[in-house]
Specification:
This protein has helices spanning 2-8, 35-41, 45-48, 60-70, 84-97, 124-128, 132-137, 163-173, 235-243, and strands spanning 27-31, 73-77, 102-105, 150-157, 181-189, 197-204, 207-215, 224-231. The protein is of the alpha/beta class. The two termini are 36 Å apart. The mean pLDDT is 86. Keywords: Chaperone, Hydrolase, Nucleotide-binding.
Length: 281
């Protein structure tokens, strides 16, 4: 996305890189033999010398998922190093993460150049809607790939999350296997302790991030809209676990909030006497 954005970014004189060059195709190459292991590693880019700017806090997992979700073409490489079942499962996973992308099989990165050059596939507006989690939130459900156990589910609620119970869930239960293997989850959420802010929930492999997204629109129908993509998911158990994290009706909320502080310029500052109950939201 940052690379693509440079083509539309205007200089002071109004000129853009797009005036001189055409962004034709966003191509991501996936290492079939190591994709899952890298997704699970959680290594920070700076540890690998791959950080792109000062204070780059992204992980390898973040980068892998971002590149898959934004691609027009995904070259699934090193297929000679995995068996057919693994290749098929990985192809299905990539399609679930980015239903709009073409998945091109390859060994030794050999592909027909027509697959990656002069395709005319890149479109910024389409790319922003390409990720599977965005499509799910928009109601464009991607059919389950039952043969490989890959599916997705959407959790919605009008109630805010209790910060303590949600923190316990995401740090101790989400990747515990009781709800299946969650490869990707993303969406928007609200903490009862920060009622004025809509948070952005983003989990890729073993890494999860919870950051402020915007001032909360209290006319929005849902406080929680989260998409979970994974293998052997157990949606009923997952939804029940998430529902147990919601603030209960009439429940008073203490000032304890284990989530990292957000720099929201005072939007979510709440006095102790203003802490909400579920009935008051």
């Amino acid at each position: 996305m940052p690379v693509a954005a440079t083509f539309a970014f205007a200089r002071d004189d109004g000129a853009t890189l797009g005036d001189l060059a055409r962004l034709d195709t966003m191509v991501t190459v996936v290492d079939a033999a190591n994709f899952q292991a890298e997704l699970d590693s959680g290594d920070e880019l700076v540890e690998r010398g791959l950080d792109q700017y000062e204070d780059d806090e992204r992980t390898v997992s973040d980068l892998l998922i971002d590149q898959v979700e934004f691609a027009d073409v995904i070259v699934l490489n090193k297929l000679d190093l995995v068996d057919a079942a693994t290749a098929d499962r990985l192809r299905a996973t990539l399609t679930r993460l980015n239903p709009a992308a073409r998945v091109v099989p390859a060994t030794h990165a050999r592909v027909d150049l027509h697959e990656v050059l002069d395709t005319g596939l890149f479109d910024l507006d389409r790319a922003q809607q390409a990720p599977g989690w965005v499509r799910e939130l928009n109601g464009d459900h991607v059919p389950e790939t039952e043969e490989y156990g890959i599916s997705s589910t959407v959790f919605r609620s009008e109630l805010p999350f209790h910060p303590g119970r949600l923190w316990t869930f995401v740090t101790k239960e989400l990747d515990g296997g009781d709800h299946g293997r969650v490869l990707r989850s993303k969406g928007f959420f609200t903490l009862a302790s920060r009622p004025q802010v809509t948070g952005l929930w983003s989990q890729a492999g073993s890494v999860a991030r919870f950051e402020p997204s915007a001032a909360r629109d209290h006319d929005a129908p849902y406080a929680q809209e989260l998409v979970f993509i994974g293998t052997e998911l157990k949606p009923n158990a997952l939804h029940a676990a998430l529902a147990a994290c919601l603030l209960r009706e009439g429940e008073a909320l203490s000032s304890d909030d284990p989530f990292p502080a957000w720099d929201t310029y005072g939007i979510d500052d709440t006095c102790a006497h203003e802490l909400p109950t579920a009935a008051g939201i």
